[in-house]
Amino acid sequence: IVKCRGGRPGTRRSKEREVQEQMGPRSLKKVRLWNLLSIDCKINGQTYKRIEKQLLFVRHAEGYHNSLFDERKVHEAINIRDPELTPLGNNQVADLRKEVDILIKSGVKIEKVIVSPMTRTLQTAWGTFGGHNIPFQACHLVSEYCDAPCNYGTRRSQLEPQWQQVDFSIVPEVWWNEDETDVTITLRAKRFREWLFKQPEKCLAIVSHAGFLHELLQEQFRNCELKRINWIHRSRRQARGH
Q1: 194-235: per-residue pLDDT in tens?
Q2: Nearest CA to 140 among 126, 127, 154?
Q3: Is residue 32 within a helix (H) or strand (E), and if so which, with residue range?
Q4: How many Å apart are CA 145 and CA 110, to the nearest integer?
Q5: What is the mean pLDDT of the chain?
Q6: Rounded to an integer, what distance in angstroms lies between the CA atom of residue 113 and that of residue 129?
Q7: Is 48 exposed, middle or buried (0-12, 13-18, 19+ CB in 10 A)?
Q8: Does pLDDT of 25 surpass 70?
Q9: What is the average pLDDT across 67-87?
Q10: DSSP-assigned states of every residue in 101-169
Q11: Fewer CB within a 10 Å sphere, N or C end of the chain?
């Protein structure tokens, strides 16, 4: 795995850069294009196959627990189970939707949206990417660090009737781990990377949470912030029989 923190911001003027300029200074901070090495290579005599994906990572918009944390009402914040978006959060989604619409009109072809099964991420994902004829896949591997009731989920059987436009086929009935630790979230991020690079799509959006995205990318995200990353995975080629 070559993580995004090993890359450098792109310097060549490109169509994507022109789109960013259309979207203004605020969005330039949100949409970051990283260029990483993209050649097959040999290490210790082994040839490694390159798999490159263009990924749009999004943190959910403001939820009610976020607003309570801002008001220093910590006890109330951590005890709201699976909170929804606030009115401000819905406005943030509407703003991000405009930016994503520009990207899609410029030719960015998002083939699938991967979304955490938390209510706030489902609301953010659908409000941002819905209506573009893009399939939605719920994936519990990208859910938040499960350290408090505000990060406890809702059963799959309750979510499916509410979100019929989302595929929950890989999500267990009870998919969150109330005994999450630093070790288990690290392992979960590793599992997600492995799962992601087995998917056939080349351009995906991932709607997740601050804690998980930091574990995965070593990046900080504000509410409803989007970061665009070219991510490369190298897998060892299998030797062929003769």
Answers
A1: 999 999 999 999 999 999 999 999 999 999 999 999 988 766
A2: 154
A3: none
A4: 26
A5: 82
A6: 8
A7: middle
A8: no
A9: 97
A10: HHHHHTT----EEEE-SSHHHHHHHHHHHTTSS--EEE-GGGSPP--SGGG----HHHHHHH-TTEE-T
A11: C
Q: How many residues does the chain have?
A: 242
180-197 pLDDT tens trace: 999 999 999 999 999 999
Whole-number Å distance between alpha carbons of 198 and 156: 24
CB-CB contact of 60 with 67 (8 Å): no
CA 240 to CA 9: how far, in whole Å? 38
- Interatomic CA distance for residues 67 and 223, integer angstroms: 11
What integer pLDDT is reported at residue 236 of this predicted model? 57
Mean pLDDT of the 63-84 span:
97
Three-state secondary-structure class, residue 115: strand
The three-class DSSP label of residue 215 is helix
State the pairing for strand pair 203-208/226-236: unpaired
Return the CA Rg of the chain.
Answer: 18
pLDDT recorded at residue 45: 60
106-135 as b/e: b if 16+ CB within 10 A: eebebebbbbbbbbbbbbbbbbbbeeeebe
Which residue do the tokens 């409803």 mark?
A: 224
